[in-house]
Design goal:
2 helices; mainly alpha; transmembrane
Length: 68
């Protein structure tokens, strides 16, 4: 049961992160922003994607120590 809670928790975190990244992407496509805001949002999008990747990697690294 703990495995499923751990897995569902990760899925929820990834969904929230993906939603935030999608909002940034849509805002960049639909609104006119100045160059400084545009650069900051691109950097935030990169950091968000990297964060999702790290959460997934961390999940797979923790499974053996928690459940095996």
């Amino acid at each position: 049961m703990e495995f499923w809670g751990f897995t569902i928790g990760l899925i929820g975190k990834v969904m929230v992160a993906f939603t935030a990244i999608a909002v940034h992407h849509r805002f960049l496509k639909e609104h006119k922003v100045d160059e400084g805001v545009f650069k900051a949002m691109k950097r935030e999008r990169f950091i968000g994607i990297l964060g999702v990747i790290l959460m997934i990697i961390g999940y797979f690294l923790e499974i053996p120590s928690r459940f095996l």
